[in-house]
Amino acid sequence: MPLSRLNQEQYVAATSNDAQNLIIASAGTGKTSTIVGRIGHLLGNGVKPQEILLLTFTNKAAAEMVERVAEYFGKDVASKIDAGTFHAVSYRWLKKLDGRVVLKQQRELKTLFRSVFEKRSFDHIGAEITPYGGNYLYDLYSFYQNTELEKHFEDWIIETYPEHELFAIIYADVVDEFEALKKEYGFLNFNDLLLNFRDICKTKDLGYKEVLVDEYQDTNALQGTLIETMNPPSLFCVGDYDQSIYAFNGADISIIGSFATKYPDATVHTLTKNYRSTIPILSLATKVIEHNERIYPKQLEVTRNQPSQAPTLLAYDELFDQYHAIAAKIRATQTPHEEIAVIFRNNSSADGIEVGLRELDIPCKRKGGTSFFDSREVKAILDFYTLLVNESDMMSFIHLFEFARGIGSAMAKEIYIALKTLGHGSIFYGLYAPDESINNPFEKRKLNHQLGLFDDFLELGAVGKFAKLGFEAKFMKNPILKHPKLTKDSATFLHDFYLLYRDLKGIKQPRTVVKKIAASAIFKYIADHLSNKRAQLKDGSIDEKQKTESLTRITRKMMLLEELSKPYVEHDRFLNAMILGSSDLTQGEGVNLLSVHASKGLEYKEVYIIDLMDGRFPNRKLMQRGGSLDEERRLFYVSVTRAKDILYLSYAKYDKVKKINFVPSQFLYEAGLVPKDEAYQALIQKELDKENEE
């Protein structure tokens, strides 16, 4: 039984008979073992596996815990446990109850949002400040959904950003039209999954006798209300307030802080034995994190008593000297590459260390920052694939046609709706068998000056200008070519789109679909466009070597995507795996390059934390945009506690490119690694001045 492997504190928590339990599990104290032990206790006491809900921060974590349960109770029992992220569990329930769910990632829906936003004009308002751009307004709206449970978006804008009050009615109308479009086309983003699932929980008993929540400190207000709405007979939450690092995504540390107040009869358990790090590493982490307010008291005890190496401070005169020197240290170490992590706070830091490692032919893999699935070329392939499976996915169409020269998201939306009109509800009928009796398929725009809506549509254009482009005769008869703003380049893009989907018709294997899309003329155009953009110099010319390297990287990504598609035989399953599971997948092998957020929950024998300069880590810019020094300190704590045996903390004194001097990170002073000099006093004074201003 898994309970037999627990220490006394873990055992008491795992076997608790109380209805609500909060387990404060600091880094390396065995929270996973405690959760597995708890599930074992439930199963051993007659609770059926399907009556257990396990909510985790990643699907990978859920799979690992279920696998450990299977070691004791068998795969048949373990597989019946409902386990996954908030979003994955919500998705399964919605799919089960409502049938087809068209899930879209938050970033991808920005394309649809922009298509609405770009129709607006703010010029008639005459305000002194600049209105928000479409992308930023989308991010604000997403944050609003995660954190605000009562106010309307317009009222929230006015209260939170009073200087934008004049624009609030337009912002809110953009949001309303965006939501109406999502509803019309059946799109759901990650927030919608939780909102819809919460509505289900209000009216339906899901049959769970216990809900276990991992990484409870990172829940946001929406997730918190979802748990409350479930109102399970037994609640088992595991987390550590010192590792709450997702405030930028709406995570609310007060949720874990107020657990004992919300549930007066709850028991708070604390796991104090650290099994991961050596005494010097844990001492350094504790010394720094204790500058934050203590929500629940805890005193960690290190169980590893063997001789250990003290954390090492690395100081370099220049920024890039640091990257090259660390790469050289990694080349010289005896630690296997897979057991080494370089942890960064900013993407620019990762770029520097990656270059340093590549120059020495040291293999590395990067997670955090711009991931494989966030790259525009991979998203383009998946957008093509999505339209094959679901032609009603207007957002994928818009996202693709933004690549065409001269087509923005608003015009792409017009073309999509026109094709749908020509095909009586089907864009592919509109493309291949249009109703030619419809002379003008383009919708008339509504006008409303107060909401920033103005009519700028022109008369229909002539298709004769495309006669010499070699288009198929049947395609040349399509009324879609009458769009007045369609150029020869954008019409060619549309024709290539036409040719691709004709070739994809009837293909059943996901791997074959990926290969055909990657080999198509339209994707080659996209790859060339992206590579030109990435290789463009300041004077506008193209560095051909950089372009060739970029095209090679794109080809490699296509090969990897093809590899990922191999196990799948159904289009839906492949697409859902790419959308829901993409954040858990990494590529390559070698040294692990990790953003602090991506390092969460992982551990390595040897860890380097780089660019520990004030301004970079802590990141002062992000602090000014709603972050806090406490949050940055928690990020530092998470970074340090990834190390098991060897820890290097690194900083540079000067950047020769930007010609700026650096001051060591405040956390290095707090750790006692740098003497508290005048520079430190200046940092502290800066914090005091900020507090007084607030």
Give a brief rundown of this model.
The protein has 694 residues and is an alpha/beta fold. It contains 31 helices and 18 strands. α6 crosses α18, α17 runs antiparallel to α24 (521-534) and α24 (521-534) crosses α25.
Please describe the topology of this protein.
Blueprint: H1 8-14, E1 20-25, H2 31-44, E2 52-56, H3 59-73, H4 75-78, E3 82-85, H5 86-98, E4 102-103, H6 106-117, H7 134-147, H8 153-160, H9 168-185, E5 187-188, H10 190-203, E6 210-213, H11 221-230, E7 234-239, H12 253-257, H13 259-262, E8 267-271, E9 273-274, H14 279-289, E10 301-302, E11 312-316, H15 319-332, E12 340-344, H16 347-359, E13 364-367, H17 376-389, H18 394-401, H19 409-422, H20 427-432, H21 473-476, H22 488-504, H23 510-519, H24 521-534, H25 544-565, H26 571-580, E14 591-595, H27 596-599, E15 604-609, H28 620-624, H29 629-640, E16 643-652, E17 654-655, E18 660-661, H30 666-670, H31 678-693
Helix pairs in contact: 1-2, 2-3, 5-10, 6-7, 6-9, 6-18, 6-19, 8-9, 10-11, 14-29, 15-16, 17-18, 17-23, 17-24, 17-26, 18-19, 23-25, 24-25
